[in-house]
Design brief:
By secondary structure, the protein is of the alpha/beta class. The chain has helices at about 20-30, 40-50, 55-70, 75-90, 95-105, 120-130, 160-170, 185-190, 200-210, and strands spanning about 5-10, 110-115, 130-140, 145-150, 175-180, 195-200, 215-220, 220-225. The chain has a single domain, classed as 3-Layer(aba) Sandwich (Rossmann fold). The chain is built from nine helices and eight strands. Helix 2 (about 40-50) packs antiparallel against helix 3 and helix 4 packs parallel to helix 6 (about 120-130).
């Protein structure tokens, strides 16, 4: 494997939402997950939409609800819902990152990391075509039903994950590229030669400014690329 590596966060960086959110809502809509699990999620969602809460809190509550609701459900139910989500929403991508991934695919070894369940991430990868893929893994019993146990949380230690992968495959970081949108991506962005903070949140933007990383903003039909060291970030309180 001699090609340089390109590392992408997926949720919010390529996909214009969270695969976890879309899968969770699909499972509730099809009555696989009880509607009762929506209450806390909706409260967090409304706080975020009304700019009275943080997106990270909303996502956290979705993950907590998902972990509870999945207990006793069969893997076939989750796979069926995952296929439906991807079929309906696979083109809901950002133009910049989707084009960048496509342009790198033949010249780079591509790695995608997601904080969403591996079932839906794998289904989405039939469209994205990453060479290596990571997502959250939930435990199954002998009947193929979920126990609620989380076996693997790669999105919580992305730097260590990449370093371990590089070491086990004898790879280097020469000409490497990384793209992420939140502070959870700082670890691997700090490793690569060309880090790109894409539509960054405030925490990632602050690091990008300090380290003079490239920042790319995609808004409506406009894509802007700049170095952040001279940019003034306005105060935003919640």
């Amino acid at each position: 494997m001699s090609n340089p590596i390109a590392i992408f966060d997926i949720d919010g960086t390529i996909f214009r939402s969270s695969l976890t959110i879309q899968l969770f809502e699909r499972l509730v809509a099809t009555k696989i997950f009880p509607a009762s699990f929506l209450a806390q999620v909706r409260r967090s969602e409304q706080k975020w939409l009304n700019r009275r809460g943080h997106y990270e809190d909303y996502i956290r509550d979705v993950v907590i609800a998902y972990q509870k609701a999945i207990v006793g459900k069969s893997q076939s139910q989750i796979l069926q819902a995952s296929r439906a989500v991807v079929k309906e929403q696979k083109y809901r991508t950002y133009q910049y990152t989707r084009t960048l991934l496509h342009s790198l695919r033949k010249r780079y070894f591509t790695i995608g990391i997601s904080g969403s369940p591996l079932e839906v991430v794998r289904e989405y990868n039939k469209f994205l075509k990453f060479d290596k893929l990571y997502g959250w893994e939930f435990g199954l019993d002998e009947r193929g039903r979920y126990t609620g146990t989380i076996l693997h949380t790669p999105s919580l230690y992305k730097k260590e994950l990449i370093l371990r992968f590089l070491e086990s495959h004898g790879l280097a970081l020469n000409r490497s590229i990384g793209v992420g949108d939140t502070e959870s991506d700082i670890g691997f962005l700090d490793l690569v030669e060309t880090p790109i903070a894409f539509n960054p949140n405030r925490s990632l933007a602050a690091v990008a400014k300090k380290k003079n990383w490239t920042v790319v903003i995609e808004r409506k039909d406009l894509i802007v690329e700049f170095k952040a060291h001279k940019v003034k970030f306005l105060k935003f309180d919640v």
